[in-house]
Amino acid sequence: MRPNLNTGINSGSEMSMPFTVMLSPDAKKYLDSLDKKRADNITKRLKELEKDPFRPRAGCDIDIVGGSGRPPMYRLRIGEFRAMYFVEDQAVYVTDLFQKKRDSAYREN
Q1: Residue 102: which pLDDT band, with cuts at 50, 70 and 90?
Q2: For 3-31, what is the mean pLDDT?
Q3: Are strands 20-23 and 81-88 parallel, antiparallel or unpaired?
Q4: Which residues make Cβ contacts (< 8 Å) with residue 107, sequence separation at least 6?
Q5: Burial of 36 (C-beta count, 10 Å sphere; 0-12/13-18/19+)
Q6: What share of the chain is helix, strand, coil (3-state, %, to 5)?
Q7: Tell me: the pLDDT tens digits for 44-64?
Q8: Of residues 25, 30, 26, the one with CA closest to residue 7
Q9: What percent of the chain has pLDDT over 90?
């Protein structure tokens, strides 16, 4: 069953980009809660997924995450933030957007 997703990012010209990025309600709510500078940076990186949501490249650190689910889940690293998504047909569904917490090895005792 596909999660209820809302369009979150408009590409302007649907014909020029092969993929459309859509945000889940939770991801959109989280993005809206951030300050403008961070939200703009995340939006810019998410728009990069419209070009190719599978291939890692400069400015687009993509990794496939564990599991053999269908469709597979991907992770996009955006500085201290992470976006989890899957691709179905020509749509990129961002299911989760969150801030990565520092590992315990970096914490001071």
Answers
A1: low
A2: 71
A3: unpaired
A4: none
A5: exposed
A6: 25, 30, 45
A7: 999 999 999 999 988 789 999
A8: 25
A9: 61
